[in-house]
Amino acid sequence: ASKVPKTADGGFNLDLDAKLDILGVGLVFGALILFFSAISGDQGAITGGINDFFVEMTGWGSILVPLGFGAVGLWLIVRHFGEDAPEVDPVRVTGLAVLYLGLLVIMMFIETFSDLYQYVTTREVLILFLEQSIEAGRGGGRIGAALYTVLINNIGEFGAVFAMIGWIVIGIMLATAALTAGYFYIRGWFE
């Protein structure tokens, strides 16, 4: 008879905390690998493909993707350190996501001021030029271009500017948990 204890399911048992710790460490090291390969002149086949995907999707915003992975990974690692563990407010996370999407659209707006876009006369031509920017990794990538075209097709360039200002203000309010009613109360407008 074997002296090795048998496990219940005959396999490798890890509790949920251990699995989340492993995922957190993987995300942190994955973020470091992606970040340093992105700024390196020589990318490997795997990291180059992953970075190319993020550049296509988010353009100039791709440099922030490893930061997000690293933040989630760090939180997964430190989440069970008792009272000192950081609490994640879903409203603030939503605010950061709203801000990030808004930045992608603003990056696309900025890209449309380049010399390439001076010959745009119709929406169809604009779509072709946006595709060229996406392929070159400029602007807000595919996500920023999609949101940009939705805005300009539905409310025009000037309306889109004001929509983006509102979008960014709402994102900042959510990310900082600064609500308008609290602002007015502090200013003494409502007693």
- What is the strand tally? 0
Strand count, sense and barrel status of the largest sheet are: none
Give the overall form.
Answer: flat
- The percentage helix is 55-70%
- The chain-level structural class is mainly alpha
Estimate the strand proportion: under 5%
- Number of DSSP helical runs: 7
Distance between the termini: 80 Å
Radius of gyration: 23 Å
Unreliable residue stretches = none
* Helix and strand sequence: HHHHHHH
What is the mean pLDDT? 85
Report on this model:
There is one protein chain. This protein has seven helices and no strands. The protein is an all-alpha fold and 191 residues long. The protein is flat. The termini are far apart.
Provide a quick synopsis of the model.
The chain is an all-alpha fold and 191 residues long.
Question: Top keywords for this entry?
Answer:
191 residues; mainly alpha
Topology:
Elements: H1 16-39, H2 45-58, H3 65-78, H4 90-111, H5 123-135, H6 141-176, H7 180-186
Helix pairs in contact: 1-2, 1-3, 2-6, 4-6, 5-6
